[in-house]
């Protein structure tokens, strides 16, 4: 069978169509968000414990971080 | 521990969709139902490279009809008696339990999945920033007690990380808020973009500061976008940025 390369090995490159400066008054670079926003727009790479469901674990994370919401990236056996 | 499970917090919940469709990698222990030589196992694993047909297992959350899935690699790691350890990189929606069963059928002896750990979900891997529930609880308490945010900065990633593997389009400040209201992206709003975008590709749209604005579906190729001076280039599918972060720049309406 032919080999298909995984998406994480694909190299991409940018090409420019037009140039413009961004206005520093609006928004933040993702790594420079105020800490409350950093959490709100954040994602954690969790090592899920065996046993409880992804749904349950997500609810725990939500409670630990006192968040309004949280969602997970797929169950192990979707 | 069953491995990588990215969790989106609050606003980042929306970005999870991109990860559900992302490629995955697993490390798996498969139990053979009789003794088989290492060479034979390696040969059979090799047959599972490429596009395979798979019928979802009895206990599945999708309709059980035959579908194709891409297997990027199946790497044999170790054998111990009847237990075979291997690593597999695959498309979203591949059932590893079923893959083991099918490998067992081809081997002729039968096999089942004994243990499974996920080692990658799109750009998230197990050897980079993986945290346990205890770690999460500790870093949050640390911040609350000492006001030191360094652990939170280190182990909570900006949601944009989830989009690392997707083709990207960067847009003008003036186009941002329109997209946040659900408008589609038109050619004049585009500043730069990845090469090799094809129609129907899922693309991530960013501000010049690198903030995620939306997940979109490309309507035309990179070459076309570069030449166009008007017309739509990408259809907004999922808005990721709240409205009003950037000012409203379009005319008319209320």
Characterize the structure shown:
The complex is a heterodimer of chains A (78) and B (254). Chain A is an alpha+beta fold. Chain A has helices spanning 35-40, 54-64, and strands spanning 14-16, 42-48, 70-72. The two termini of chain A are 26 Å apart. With 254 residues, chain B is of the alpha+beta class. Chain B contains seven helices and 15 strands. In chain B, β4 (67-80) and β5 form a beta hairpin. The longest helix of chain B has 14 residues, at 133-146. Chain B is globular and about 70 Å long. The termini of chain B are far apart. The mean pLDDT of chain B is 95.
The percentage helix of chain B is 10-25%
Number of strands of chain A: 3
Order of helices and strands of chain A: EHEHE
Mean pLDDT of chain B: 95
Q: What's a quick, concise take on this entry?
A:
Chain A has 78 residues and is α+β, with helices and mostly antiparallel strands. Chain A has helices spanning 35-40, 54-64; strands at residues 14-16, 42-48, 70-72. Helix content of chain A is 22%, strand content 17%.
